[in-house]
Design brief:
heterodimer; A: 107 residues; alpha+beta; 4-stranded mixed beta sheet; 32% strand; B: 177 residues; mainly alpha
């Protein structure tokens, strides 16, 4: 089932407006990844119990690795699927792994 | 998936190579290696080395396109296993040729195998560091935030993904370039 993806303005959109050092291309890559994985294959992620914040939680996490300017970055999106039966997934939170990513530009 | 194909290529080249090397190991410490056989071993190692380079490029390509963390970890793990096996084969081939082929050509082959090993070792170290990073868990969410995220979404304001993408495309207020 394909889902309609809704993104929280206050938290997620604002985060991407304010996060530093993330290129426009990386933002577009993130959007494409959300489309590919969550919009088109959301059921796969929804069905994995380990991705739930807690047993029975309405939220699951989706973690994505992207390379931007030779540096790897990892983002965690929290998706609330309480309205999944209506075909909607709400992306309600995002953060980034606060560790230094190894550089992947050795070629 | 492209990495499955590449891994199969490496596997396909490693199996007969390892078999041939094992036969030589059984033959004792002064094995005879025909010129054709040495060439065959070098061809197999060359193909494996090329595939290892391909796996390295693929690792960069898939991260540039964005990949879900667990899928990336699986890719790194299977690639790491393959690279480690390839390194074992390169080392065994090098030791065999070093002992069995004394010609100038043999020395060149040994040098080439040393270079394959060096490249593979660099990639292995890169993979190991990446894997450690990819497997680092995010810190748990604060309990109050967790509770907030579980609440019905009706009171919040959302935009759809296409609108978000259009905003990014237009460079709307983003801090990045």
């Amino acid at each position: 089932m394909a889902y309609w993806l809704e993104i929280d303005q206050e938290c997620v959109v604002r985060y991407f407006r304010e996060v530093e050092g993330l290129s426009r291309l990386a933002r577009l890559t993130l959007a494409a990844s959300l489309q590919r994985d969550l919009r088109e294959h959301g059921d796969t992620f929804r069905a994995i119990p380990e991705l739930r914040l807690a047993p029975g939680s309405a939220c699951f996490q989706y973690e994505i690795v992207i390379k931007d300017g030779g540096r790897l970055r990892m983002f965690r999106f929290i998706v609330n699927d309480a309205n999944a039966e209506n075909g909607v997934l709400h992306i309600v939170y995002v953060d980034e792994l606060p560790s230094h990513a190894p550089r992947a530009d050795s070629q | 998936m492209a990495n499955t194909l590449l891994l199969e290529v490496v596997q396909g080249a490693l199996d007969p190579l390892d078999q041939a090397l094992r036969e030589h190991a059984k033959a004792g410490h002064a094995p005879a290696v025909q010129v054709e056989e040495a060439e065959q071993i070098m061809r197999a190692c060359g193909l494996i080395a090329q595939s290892v380079v391909g796996l390295r490029q693929l690792t960069h390509t898939i991260s540039a396109k964005g990949i879900e963390r667990r899928q990336f970890a699986a890719h790194l793990n299977s690639t790491l296993t393959t690279v480690a096996r390839a390194m074992g084969s390169f080392a065994a081939a090098r030791d065999l040729l070093r002992r069995a082929v004394t010609s100038e050509e043999g020395a060149a082959d040994v040098a080439k195998l040393d270079s394959f090993l060096h490249e593979a070792e660099q990639f292995r170290q890169e993979l190991t560091a990446l894997l450690v990073w990819v497997e680092t868990p995010f810190p748990p969410l604060p309990i109050d935030l967790h509770a907030e995220l579980e609440r019905p979404t009706g009171e919040r304001s959302f935009i759809n993904l296409d609108e978000f993408r259009a905003q990014v495309q237009a460079g709307d207020g983003s801090a990045g370039q």
